[in-house]
């Protein structure tokens, strides 16, 4: 399997810094993450030193010769990135769990199933379960934890541990496929199975019910109609970057969403209330995903600053102080949020889109000033933030209704006052 070092072209980085990037920028970022995942697998191969990992790697390389796209799709699966990152991290620190690196066999098996390539590969069983990333989960009788041989045959058939099944869309005894929802040609996986999909303490318990899944489907249909109708660049970026939604527990009031640099392509979220919230959340979280991939290729924050523990900066969208790297992520995300409401206000009669646009364009603009004044950015980081600031500066000149501007100022002032009282800091 070929390792592919990657460098973002300068013009693509410039468009990303301004807040966009579109389909072309998204493709470059996805390629950069593919390179990262391949690098992790090469590191795993060198560190694990087991025959099971070597055999699984050979299977993956053989499948790639037959169907590179199948291997690429599985390697880019967010839970695969999280697993590989954790496995390499633990191996470098001398933490040995023979079953953890052997999950490469399940990755190879998933790629072989997608490619229609017959193979045999060792896979780990934990408590009687085998997770095939991007496909689903196999449950074996007995409930043990061990290394077993899995065989992939014609027509997506799988034989393992005395069980024979077809890894198709419909459930069979011993087989649970991942949920898939979609709108038009846009398909998403709703992952409520993979142990590496998110922080175990935050994921929902059990699987989504049919009624819950239908609600997610309805929200996606409405959100995708809104994005493709009014937010074309966001739609292109989401289509190229985000293939997976992960249900997580929500707060006592409202909703929650999150992204993770180790899980590029996944957005974790509590149950969406409606399509508009989901569309705005895509606009928010795709920014986090984009910046995370940029940071994997370009140092925007000085290394000595990235390791500092003190949190001294005010973030208009958080209740807690933020370090410089977190502040950068927030500013880039809310550049996307402001852009979403900037366009959406042309399609809704009420004041809320105007209020959201006025509030977040000003907040993100002020934070770019904090970032540039901190002194912790690298020269490329300063150029990146300066480009963000230019976009936001131009938006500050766009008119909004006086009532919306006043409400935005009131909300911002109330947040700042509450933040200062809570943290005893001035920013």
Automatic annotation (TrEMBL):
This is HEXXH motif-containing protein. NCBIfam families: mod_HExxH (TIGR04267). It comes from Planomonospora venezuelensis. InterPro entries: AKG_HExxH.
């Amino acid at each position: 399997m070929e390792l592919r070092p990657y460098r973002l072209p300068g013009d693509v980085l410039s468009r990303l810094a301004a807040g966009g990037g579109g389909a072309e920028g998204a493709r470059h970022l996805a390629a950069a993450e593919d390179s990262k995942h391949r690098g992790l697998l090469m590191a795993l191969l060198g560190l694990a030193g087991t025959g099971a990992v070597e055999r699984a790697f050979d299977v993956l390389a053989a499948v790639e010769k037959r169907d590179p796209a199948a291997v690429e799709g599985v390697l880019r699966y967010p839970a695969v990135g999280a697993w590989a990152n954790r496995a390499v991290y633990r191996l470098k620190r001398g933490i040995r769990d023979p079953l953890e690196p052997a999950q490469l066999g399940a990755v190879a098996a998933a790629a072989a199933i997608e490619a229609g390539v017959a193979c045999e590969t060792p896979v780990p069983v934990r408590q009687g379960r085998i997770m095939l990333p991007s496909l689903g989960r196999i449950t074996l009788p007995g409930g043990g934890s061990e290394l077993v041989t899995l065989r992939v045959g014609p027509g997506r058939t799988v034989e393992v541990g005395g069980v024979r099944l077809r890894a198709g869309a419909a459930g069979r005894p011993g087989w649970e496929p991942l949920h898939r929802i979609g709108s038009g040609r846009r398909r998403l996986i709703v992952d409520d199975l993979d142990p590496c999909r998110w922080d175990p303490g935050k994921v929902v318990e059990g699987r989504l019910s049919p009624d819950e899944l239908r609600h997610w489907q309805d929200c996606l249909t409405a959100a995708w109609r809104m994005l493709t109708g009014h937010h074309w660049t966001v739609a292109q970026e989401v289509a190229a970057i985000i293939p997976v939604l992960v249900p997580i527990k929500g707060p006592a009031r409202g909703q929650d969403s999150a992204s993770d640099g180790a899980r590029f392509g996944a957005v974790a979220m509590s149950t969406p209330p409606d399509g508009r919230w989901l569309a705005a959340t895509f606009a928010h979280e795709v920014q986090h995903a984009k910046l995370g991939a940029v940071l994997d290729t370009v140092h925007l924050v000085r290394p000595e600053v990235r390791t500092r523990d003190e949190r001294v900066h005010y973030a208009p969208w958080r209740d807690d102080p933020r370090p410089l790297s977190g502040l950068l992520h927030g500013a880039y995300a809310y550049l996307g949020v402001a852009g979403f409401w900037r366009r959406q206000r042309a399609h809704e009669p009420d004041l809320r889109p105007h209020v959201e646009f006025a509030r977040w364009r000003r907040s993100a603009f002020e934070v770019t000033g904090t970032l540039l004044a901190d002194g912790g950015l690298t020269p490329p980081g300063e150029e990146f933030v300066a480009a963000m600031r230019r976009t936001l500066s131009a938006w500050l000149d766009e008119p909004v209704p006086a009532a919306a501007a006043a409400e935005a100022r009131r909300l911002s002032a109330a947040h700042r006052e509450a933040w200062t009282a809570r943290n005893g800091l001035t920013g």
